[in-house]
UniProtKB/TrEMBL annotation:
Keyword annotations from UniProtKB, A to Z: Transferase
Pfam short name (any one): Acetyltransf_CG
Coiled coil residues, start to end: none
Gene3D superfamilies documented for this protein: 3.40.630.30
Protein known as: Putative GNAT family acetyltransferase
Domain N-acetyltransferase as annotated: residue spans: 34-90
GO molecular function, one term: transferase activity
Lineage: Bacteria, Bacillati, Actinomycetota, Actinomycetes, Streptosporangiales
InterPro entries: Acyl_CoA_acyltransferase, GNAT_YJDJ
Amino acid sequence: MEPSPAALEVHKDETIRLREALSDAGVAGTLASETTSGRITTAHLYVDPDQRHRGIASALARHALSQSRAVVGIYCGFTVDYVQAYPEWNVMVDISRSAFAATRTTRNTNSGR
């Protein structure tokens, strides 16, 4: 069952540098990120296996992107996939492909190698 938008809350906790997606069951997912001078760098996204395919990862990525006032540095494979699926974010991202595990995007990019 997909959570309704009202049942999912995303908030930022700067003390531990995480954005957390909270559902009625507790923390459903996290996105490690850091903010420096308005620039957000995203590093790693995790969603509880029992909570996957419900839009939680997308909500975390969207929250981080919408909170930035400057270019976003992305080191998280899922967030790269999200940005490429929603090109309106392309204007404000700086994607580094050197530091993430294979995802749909990196597999497609490296398919000729």
